[in-house]
C-alpha cells in the first residue's frame, strides 16, 4: 500500500489532503506540531473509516533545528516502513513588509516554509530514491506584493527548489508544486475577507479544498510530470 507523509496535516488544507489520499487507498502519516487533538481526531476518524490502515500521527516542530528530519524520515512509527510520497504543506503566514521584517520573523518564515521542506525533500530522496514530492506554494510566487514579504520570499525560494530538485533527482524522484490562491482565511481574518480576496480573482471564487487536493493528487498520480507548478488559484496568477 503506498504511503504519504503530509506535514501540517491536522487541520485545514493538510487535513483535506489526508482525507483525499486516504479515500484513494493510501496510508497517510499525519504530521502536526501544536494541533495534537485535531491530529488524533483525524487519525481515529480515518482508522474507523479505513480499518486496514493506521494513519499514525507524528509531532515535530519544523522551526527547531533539524531534529524533525530523523522523526519524520528515519524513525517513522511501526508498521510504516517507508514513504512513496511527501507533501510539504505546513507553513507560517505572517504579515510584514520588507521594511518591517525583523530577523526573528525572517528566520521563522524561512525555517518552516523553505528550510524544513528542503531538508525533508533531501532526506526523502536519500532514503527512498524514488517516489514523488509535492510542495504547497502560493500564487504570491508570481508577484511582488510586499504585505507578507518574508512569507512570499520563502515560497518563491521553495518554487525554485522544486524545479532544481526535479532536474537533479530525475528519473528517480519527481518534484512538483501546487500554488493555491484564496482557500481559507488566515486565523485573524474571517470569511468576508476571503470572499473579498476571491472577488478580485479572474474566476471570482474561493478555491475549494477539494479542487486544491485534486491538483496535488494529479501531480502525485501522473508519472510523466516533474518540475511543474500548478496554479490552483482561480486565475489569480494571471494578474501578477
Ligand atoms: N489557506 C489559504 O488560503 C492558502 C493560500 C495560499 C497558499 N496556502 C498554502 O497552503 C498550505 C496550507 O495552508 P493552510 O492555510 O492550511 O496552512 P496553516 O493552517 O496556516 O498551517 C498549516 C499547519 O502548519 C503547521 N505549522 C506551522 N508552523 C509549524 C512549525 N513550526 N512546525 C511544524 N508545523 C508547523 C501547523 O501545524 P499545527 O497546527 O499542528 O501546529 C498548521 O496547522 C500552506 O503551505 C500555505 O502557505 C494556503
Annotated CATH architecture = 3-Layer(aba) Sandwich
Task: Give the helices and strands as they follow along the chain.
Answer: EHEHEHEHEHEHHE
The total of helices stands at 7
Low-confidence stretches: none
| CATH superfamily (homologous) name | NAD(P)-binding Rossmann-like Domain
Note the overall shape: globular
Relevant terms:
single chain; 240 residues; alpha/beta; Rossmann fold; seven-stranded parallel β-sheet; 7 helices; binds NADP nicotinamide-adenine-dinucleotide phosphate
Describe this protein's structure.
The protein is 43% helix and 15% strand. With 240 residues, the chain is of the alpha/beta class. It has a single domain, classed as Rossmann fold (3-Layer(aba) Sandwich), CATH 3.40.50.720. The protein has a seven-stranded parallel β-sheet with strand order 3-2-1-4-5-6-7, sandwiched between helices. Helix 2 (36-49) links the parallel strand 2 (27-32) and strand 3. Helix 1 (12-23) packs across helix 7 (209-221), helix 3 (67-74) packs parallel to helix 4 (103-128) and helix 4 (103-128) packs parallel to helix 5 (149-169). It is globular. The model has no long low-confidence stretch (mean pLDDT 97). The structure holds NADP nicotinamide-adenine-dinucleotide phosphate. NADP nicotinamide-adenine-dinucleotide phosphate (NAP) is lined by residues 8, 10-14, 32-35, 61-63, 89-93, 112, 136, 138, 180, 182-184.
Amino acid at each position: 500500500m503506498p504511503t504519504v507523509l503530509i506535514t501540517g496535516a491536522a487541520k485545514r488544507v493538510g487535513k483535506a489532503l489526508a482525507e483525499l489520499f486516504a479515500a484513494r487507498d493510501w496510508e497517510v502519516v499525519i504530521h502536526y506540531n501544536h494541533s495534537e487533538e485535531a491530529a488524533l481526531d483525524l487519525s481515529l476518524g480515518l482508522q474507523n473509516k479505513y480499518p486496514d490502515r493506521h494513519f499514525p500521527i507524528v509531532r515535530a516542530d519544523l522551526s527547531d533545528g533539524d531534529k524533525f528530519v530523523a522523526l519524520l524520515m528515519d524513525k517513522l512509527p511501526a508498521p510504516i516502513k517507508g514513504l512513496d510520497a511527501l507533501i510539504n504543506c505546513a507553513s507560517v503566514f505572517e504579515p510584514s513588509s520588507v521594511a518591517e521584517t525583523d530577523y526573528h520573523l525572517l528566520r521563522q518564515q524561512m525555517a518552516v516554509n523553505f528550510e524544513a521542506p528542503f531538508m525533508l525533500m533531501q532526506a526523502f530522496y536519500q532514503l527512498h530514491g524514488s517516489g514523488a514530492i509535492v510542495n504547497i506554494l502560493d500564487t504570491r510566487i508570481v508577484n511582488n506584493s510586499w504585505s507578507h514579504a518574508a512569507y512570499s520570499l520563502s515560497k518563491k525560494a521553495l518554487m525554485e527548489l522544486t524545479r532544481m530538485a526535479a532536474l537533479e533527482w530525475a528519473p528517480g524522484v519527481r518534484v512538483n508544486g501546487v500554488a493555491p490562491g484564496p482557500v481559507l482565511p488566515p486565523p485573524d481574518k474571517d470569511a468576508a475577507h476571503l470572499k473579498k480576496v476571491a472577488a478580485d480573482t479572474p474566476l471570482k471564487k474561493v478555491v475549494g479544498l477539494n479542487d486544491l487536493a485534486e491538483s496535488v493528487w494529479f501531480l502525485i498520480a501522473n508519472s510523466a510530470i516533474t518540475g511543474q507548478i500548478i496554479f490552483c488559484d482561480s486565475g489569480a496568477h494571471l494578474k501578477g
